[in-house]
Amino acid sequence: MATVLKVFDRWKQFLNERIDQAEKAGMKDETINKLAFQIGEFLSDKVDPENNEERVLKELWDVADEQEKRTIAKLMVKLVTPGT
Fold first, then answer.
1. How much is the pLDDT for 70?
2. What are the pLDDT digits (tens) for 16-45?
3. 72: closest CA among 63, 61, 83?
4. What is residue 37's three-state secondary structure?
5. HEC-encoded secondary structure of 1-57
6. Choosing a second label site near 11 at 20 to 30 A (CA), which of 1, 18, 28, 56?
7. Is the pLDDT of residue 1 over 50?
């Protein structure tokens, strides 16, 4: 179980680093959230979940309508961005 959490923590850290890079490049929150949505679509279609957390996210994504998916993407950005 600890390994799964470490993998998920590494994934969150990776996402946080990409968001930080986007912000430093001058991207606005709206653009970052749109990119997060596009990444979510890609991951849901092309990548098999490797752990329980990813599986839950995929299942939520798969049952969500487009607006709900945008909310999930925005929440993922918020989850990994300190101070939000």
1. 95
2. 888 899 999 999 999 999 988 998 888 888
3. 61
4. helix
5. CHHHHHHHHHHHHHHHHHHHHHHHCCCCHHHHHHHHHHHHHHHHHHCCCCCHHHHHH
6. 28
7. no
Measured CA to CA, the distance from residue 16 to residue 63 in angstroms comes to 25
Q: Residue 81's closest CA among 10, 17, 31?
A: 17
Q: Which amino acid makes up residue 7? A: V
Q: Token pair of 33, please? A: 């959230």
d(CA 26, CA 13): 20
Rounded to whole angstroms, how far apart are CA atoms 10 and 17?
10
Q: Which CATH superfamily is domain 2-80 in?
A: Protein of unknown function DUF3243 (1.10.760.20)
Q: Which two tokens stand for residue 18?
A: 């990409």
Higher pLDDT, 51 or 79: 79
Which residue carries 């970052």 as its tokens? 32
